[in-house]
Amino acid sequence: MNQLSACKKFLSAFACAVFAQCTFTVFVAAQTASTWQWRNITPASGLMPEPRRDGEAIYDPIGKRIILFGGNSNAGLKNDTWAFDLATRSWTKLDTVGTPPAGRLGFDAVYDPVGHQLVVYSGQGAGFFNDTWTLNLTTLQWTDISPASDSARPKKRYGSAAVFDPQTRSLVSFAGFTSEAGRFQDTQSFGLSDKTWSDWTPGGSKPQVRCLHTAAFDRVNRRMIVYAGQRNGALDDIWSFDLASRQWTNLTPAQRPPGRFWSTSFVNKDGRFLIFGGSGASNFNDTWEFNLATQAWTQLQIENPPSPRNGMISIYIEAEDRFIVIGGTGNSGNLNDVWELSRKSPATVSTVSAASFDGTTLAPESIVSAFGANLATGTQAANVAPLPTTLAGTSVRVKDSLGAERLAPLFFASPGQINFLIPAGTVAGTATITIVGSDGSIAIGSAQISNLAPSLFTANSSGTGVAAAVLLRIGANGSQTVEPVAEWNSALNRFVARPIDLGNDGVQVYLLLFGTGLRFRSSLSSVTISIGGQVAQVQYAGQQNDFVGLDQVNVLLPHSLAGRGEVELALTADGKPANAVLLHFK
């Protein structure tokens, strides 16, 4: 008897439909929501900086505080220095040592971790600047570290944008504006080790002249991401500057946010570039995310955002995935409120066997279903082989007890349910399952992995009731016929057991069961089946080669079961029980 060929014949008809139903069952979930949240963390009382725009701030990771300097207030240009304690949400005006930089707006500021210092460059005050200053965050000493000769510095300007390059320990600044020279498109680097400026402007393609743009550091790829700005109106392009090769790349897609200047930005720890606010036709308070891998923009729908504004002061704390926005200019003038953009707590997800719906233990290479909310932004079933690791923009990562993390092959994705394969090689113990949606949504759960977790598919995709199985009938003359063991009952709106006729003693009737999680049984003899309390002979128990993750068990049905009516089939493998299923014998 060619058992697998019979299985193929069955799966091409009834069982294929049942298996697909078990694998692709859809549960309705709520509309996808953003994983980000805005929170107003403005102190309710106490000392605060004057409302202002176009200042700068850095995050001090040692003091766990924000250091703010300068900007333009209602009273004019500022050169004061403030610290915001994120734990207590309170401001302190710092009494710095020495002469501070002149009051200014539209300058660059970065944090130098080697010197534990704030670095300030350029800006506009009584005129335009090209000086460079440091504030030692331990002693609070201001120091002018500008090269003595003006010719050894870039041209004076304001409205540039900069990042800190840790590899060269340098402030890297792009473009800007002065009334004398107009707008620039140069890329300049100030090395903090030797306090020397270098012109990094490459030949070939580069962003056009501009000012009032925003820039953020992409740590993973060591590049500066520059977005939008102003040049005879608002711009909407996005570029990357590779700090190793010192070459520009245009990343601008056809679909993009409305053009703007005086916006703010950061690259989050997942490698997405995010922008907030700015000014164009009017002030904005929208948040957009640019996927640096796919080069596509997505507007994030986040409740309770700050009011529309431009010229905000901001910092990003990568270790905590928090973005802080301070002040700026709104529709009614300058502001000094403080807002935090952070992740919501990850959603939870529950993962069970797709056959039995039991999640006590799961086995490597078994078919499972994860249930939760907002797991995907759409619905999609796999239609290619090998199985994809992304469907509807969603991926699943399984990290086993040894810390090895693998992408899971996916059968089906919907907002409420993801069906996937526990990756091959996942070792026994507690595994962490992380589901990441195309909108950045994250759901996390755990599963206990065991080498064996036998479970059987059922016709009604419930883990109980009549088996998803087929009969193979071999006549005395060697003829073979295939029959289902379940039939649709329209009155009950479900599958019911179809009575099995075992025939005479000259006919052999085999039951072909379909399940998952039992292919790694220690031996064929370790698999036992009892039907209505009567032991049946197991002929095969192992992998079914036509469907990923599907296992098959072939059982010779004893004629003594004739007339028993509805009975329960119990399977164990290496002493571990599967879910019970029903059969009916006439």
SSE order and pairing:
Blueprint: H1 3-11, H2 14-24, E1 36-40, E2 52-53, E3 56-60, E4 65-73, E5 76-85, E6 90-93, E7 108-112, E8 117-124, E9 128-136, E10 142-144, E11 161-165, E12 170-178, E13 182-191, E14 196-199, E15 214-218, E16 223-230, E17 234-242, E18 247-250, E19 264-267, E20 272-279, E21 283-291, E22 296-300, E23 309-310, E24 313-317, E25 322-330, E26 333-343, E27 347-348, E28 350-353, E29 367-371, E30 380-381, E31 395-399, E32 405-407, E33 410-413, E34 417-421, E35 429-436, E36 442-449, E37 455-456, E38 469-474, E39 480-484, E40 486-489, E41 494-497, E42 508-516, E43 527-531, E44 534-543, E45 551-556, E46 565-573, E47 576-577, E48 581-585
Parallel strand pairs: 27-36
Antiparallel strand pairs: 1-26, 2-4, 3-4, 4-5, 5-6, 7-8, 8-9, 9-10, 11-12, 12-13, 13-14, 15-16, 16-17, 17-18, 19-20, 20-21, 21-22, 23-25, 24-25, 25-26, 28-29, 29-34, 30-33, 31-32, 31-35, 33-34, 35-36, 37-42, 38-39, 38-42, 40-41, 42-45, 43-44, 43-46, 44-45, 46-47, 46-48
